[in-house]
Amino acid sequence: MRQIVIATSNTGKFKEIRDVLADAFDRFYSLNDFDEKVLVEEDSPLYVENVIKKARKIGDRFGIETIADDSGLEVEALGGRPGVLSARYGDTDDERIARLLSELEGVEWKKRGAVFKAYLAFYIPEREVSYVFYGALSGYITFEKRGDQGFGYDPVFYVPEYDKAFAELTMEVKNSISHRGRALHAFSKFLNAVKK
Predict the structure, then answer these.
(1) What is 3-195's CATH number?
(2) Is 70 one of the catalytic residues?
(3) Among the options 23, 33, 70, 94, which is catalytic?
(4) pTM
């Protein structure tokens, strides 16, 4: 039986990743499934360093293959902020969104361009090796929240191709086009290639 730890305690993110990888693994764990809380200080200014560090620390501690992600929202008008600090832009999703919209107050639509970036690290403890996958999606930051699906910045991230915010899309559509979905797709292709 092939097991994997999805190194997150965020239930929305866990479900999103688990759904995409459902055929590749038999058992999925989130950090909520363990009594012990392993603290990982994501102190690098680079997504890729943070994600490798997180996957390695969790994987080594529990001895189970681990996938970790570090993703961020980079907004053009804010010089790339919040970027690697996206998850720390407030204590809750509502606080993070409120801060972002406040910082963009008065900024016209064409300057509200943004990119969601995701880095995934897959770590195999017994081989002490990590593989990294990347995905990105461009869009715009809306003037107010739209939709009630998803989590994080989804209600204010507008996808031009669908004329909707992320939070207005079904999970299936979101997983197929999102930054994390694209990184997970690359990971799935890797897993299929390794099986052959």
Answers:
(1) 3.90.950.10
(2) yes
(3) 70
(4) 0.88
